[in-house]
Amino acid sequence: MGSLGKEISICPYYASRAAIKPAEIVTLPYPLLLQKSAREALGISLKGHVVIIDEAHNLMDAIAGIYGTEMELRELKLAKEMLGNYFRKFAKRLGGKNRIYVAQTIRVVDSLVGYLVRMLEGSAIDGVVSQKDLLSGKGADQIDLFKLIRYLQESKLARKVESYTDHIRISQPQTSVSSSKNKGPPKSTPILHTLTSLLLALTHPTSEGQLFFLKHENDVTLKFQLLNPAIHFDSIVSSARAVILAGGTMSPFSDYTSILFPSVPAHKIKTLSCGHVIPSSNLFASVVSKGPTGYPFKWTFENRANTEMMDELGRVLVNVCTVVPGGVVVFFPSYRVLDTILARFAVVQQGNNNSTSKPKSLLQRLEEKKTVVREAKEESVEEILRRYGNAIAEGKGGLLFSVVGGKLSEGINFSDDLGRAVVIVGLPFPNARTAEWRRRLRFVEESAVARLSGDYLGSASSSLTRLGLKGGYVEKEKDEEVENGETGRSQNTEPQIQIPIPHEIQAQIAHKAKEEAKDFFENVCMRAVNQSVGRAIRHRGDWAGILMVDERFRGEGVRGKLAGWIREGVKGVKEEDQGFGRVVGGLGAFVRGRRGGV
User: Fold this and answer.
1) For every residue of 48-78, which 3-state class applies, written as one string?
2) CA-CA distance, 512 to 524, in Å (whole number)?
3) Which of 104, 165, 464, 540 lies at 20 to 30 Å from 425 by C-alpha?
4) Which of 404, 396, 397, 448 is nearest to 424 (CA)?
5) What mean pLDDT, rounded, does the chain reach?
6) What's the pTM value of the predicted model, to 2 decimals?
7) Is 513 part of any domain?
């Protein structure tokens, strides 16, 4: 259809929309499938159909990304200026209602700007934002946001203001609105459209999502984070005949059930996990809890500046690069950790070489073994992979420093010599100290308490029913219909029986809820680990070594969340197997066996 559209100069996208209704299989990107409004605009009904969602390990984040939104202070200031220019130019031409709504929009934006300016000047780096505080200035709290949003959507004000602003930029290139265009990275969505999404977020109840402010460098961001993806996913679950979540790295899966399918009975949810296509002999997986000198690895927040541990990691990588041919990919928890460790590697270490040799840094020693390439935010994926691939093709081999959740941890295949070893440094937990993650974990805990309490009360209510008590009431007479046609109760019905939850049950529920929040936090981390590790082995004949450099990987709670094909053969867990000599010796023997075709 794409080729035909080009041939006859007709847009294939709109032609494909017309072909949706009679089609038996329809492929859609996440945003069009997961938004009910987008499905309705395309005329897609899921009723009675099977929905298959691929790469579903991203599903919860995808839903949160679609329904979340954020704006920086500089963007809000620009939006205020754009609206002001438009209002001054067209105020006399606007009708009374239009003039009022444009003025209200400016007042709301002015209030948002004022709040963020105060936050920028304050000491807190982040925090939860209430709508009351956000709209406390310029009389914005007196404005009906629902009516204002409906006006913005129906009047297409955002498009009109953006169009007029583009005209100003062309005709008056010296104006401030023109110079502001190039400040910061370009956004794919026009600012006024993002503003409309942000105002819509202000109307959401706190049970669905939460507003936050986040300070960074010389700016501050106002962000709406969706907390409950089930609210928007339920329209798919309730309509479709079946929903299939598919992916190569779905594990761990436990939180999908409680977060995405809270209304679906457990017996209706089926899981299927398949092994990897490679034989177990093509994988070497080991925990590295100690380095060559015996120094232990535990990459916690408290150890983020531990230079001894960084040096020990460097020595581990020198050994790995010595025994592993081709490419070695190292994943770090974050760009900040990567920058810190590489800066340490660049420091010349006295006494780490023979006295007759010139002292070298760990980075220099690594560069003697392989060509070092690092992932950088500002560099394209294509350029990074080109340099890395060339180093391997030339025979020296490559050492690629990357980041879990970064550009290279997903969707990139490091098959064959591109990835003969993957090294995971630490556990990439999100920062639980941020306001956003504190709120997310509290939401998971609160939701678990509500669900578990409901389960207990439901069970207790069933027991009352068996005793002749129905629906929490002692039944004296049947329900009778009142005048308006609604079902009511006769005056003789006795008061509702309150079912108390015993204190010991409440304590058990609270403990279980905390465990679910902890489980959710660990699952986010371990799905990212599994996704990164899965980059290496891409076909049946492929082989690779996987090293997990952190003693916490020995724990059953963490190790149990590894993908099954890795978990079953992990070495370095028992006390007697932890010496680094055993690990590197085992890795070397594995490599020799694979290269020899044994």
Assistant:
1) CCEEEECCHHHHHHHHHHHHCEEEEHHHHHH
2) 19
3) 540
4) 404
5) 86
6) 0.82
7) no
